[in-house]
Amino acid sequence: MNLSRIDLNLFTVFDAIYREGGITAASKRLHLSQPAVSHALGRLRELLEDPLFERHGNEMVPTPLARTLAVTIGSSLGNLEQMLHRAGRFDPATSQRVFAIAVRESQESTFLPALLTKLATTAPNIDVAAVRIERRDLEDDLQSGDIDFALDVALPLSADVRRELIGAAPLVVLARTGHPVVQGSLDLETYLAQEHVLVTGRRRGRGYEDAVLAKLGLTRRIRVRCQQHAAANEIVRRTDLLATMSRRQAELVNKDHQMLPFPTDIAALDSYLYWHARAEDDPASRWFKSALLEALHAES
User: Fold this and answer.
1) How many helices (H) and strands (E) does the chain have?
2) DSSP character for 158?
3) How far apart are CA 288 and CA 285, in angstroms?
4) For residue 216, what pLDDT is reported?
5) Which long-range contacts (CB under 8 A, 24 or more apart) does 48-54 make?
6) DSSP 8-state secondary structure symbol assigned to residue 79
7) What mean pLDDT is predicted for residues 284-299?
8) pLDDT at residue 86, rounded to an integer
């Protein structure tokens, strides 16, 4: 197959369909019409003699060949994009780059305001997208350039992914001021006897504090799971449930609740900024990382 005879835009369409899981979403990502995306997919199917994606319900499921191609195509497109960024000059005052940061919903309020305040004066045309991804996709998304940075706990990633420790946040417990049992202090027995709200984006599974309790042979009753610390704070205000969170998160959302130390020894939860090694050759990424770290350290 002669590469010079192939329209390389077809691979951009393929990558978008693979990542977005459908033609409609891919067309929005590429700013193309759905017929244009469908036509490009048809040409690539004919070229490779494989359906590449098969519809199952509302999903476009990749074929084995498509899964094999996806890693190479995604990596190659990411490398090409980074090369083009390095070739161009970077001036934060005029740059129109968009940087995507993978971050948990509950963490956005801790640094985005400070970051945007800095960008408003030094880089008014740089846009920021805070997005949610699956942890298992983090390294692939950094490698492909689908995201530029990620903020998360300690993760087992390859040496191609760089990291910097942001901080370690001690855990505290929120209880409403008029709680019938918790009144100014909290021991472990009382903590375990109460019902709790867990802040998480996952449907199931334990929180960090539950994993620590499990090592002690202990469990607690999680009555409700929610995605936002502000929601947990409101639940605490209206009920007798307790909410466990980092002290920084508690300081952001707490207005008039009791804020008490976690009732047993527990290691503070480390937070890291992640980026791909390739981004270190990109002047824009280096500049944005510096601004991001400044905002993160200022708010940690």
Assistant:
1) 11, 12
2) -
3) 5
4) 92
5) 52/14, 53/17, 53/18
6) H
7) 89
8) 57
Burial class (CB in 10 A: 0-12, 13-18, 19+), 46: exposed
Mean confidence (pLDDT) of the chain: 88
Q: Which amino acid is at 108?
A: E
Sheet holding 269-276, edge to edge: 127-131, 98-102, 149-152, 269-276, 161-169
Percentage of the chain beyond pLDDT 90 is: 44
54, two tokens: 């098969």
Mean pLDDT within 114-126: 93
Going by pLDDT thresholds of 50, 70 and 90, the confidence category of residue 2 is low
Domain 171-267: what homologous superfamily?
Answer: Periplasmic binding protein-like II (3.40.190.10)
Q: How far apart are CA 245 and CA 224, in angstroms?
A: 14
pLDDT at position 177 over 90: yes
- State yes or no: pLDDT of 137 exceeds 80: yes
Contacts of 103 (CB under 8 A, 6+ apart): 130, 131, 132, 150, 151, 152
CATH pick for 98-167+270-299 out of 3.30.420.40, 3.40.190.10, 3.90.226.10, 3.40.50.300: 3.40.190.10
pLDDT, mean of residues 213-220: 94
d(C-alpha 131, C-alpha 29), whole Å: 14
Distance CA 254, CA 5 (A): 62
pTM of the model: 0.64
Selected from 3.40.50.20, 3.90.1150.10, 1.10.10.10, 3.40.50.300, the CATH number assigned to the domain covering 3-87 reads 1.10.10.10
Q: What is the mean pLDDT of residues 67-87?
A: 75
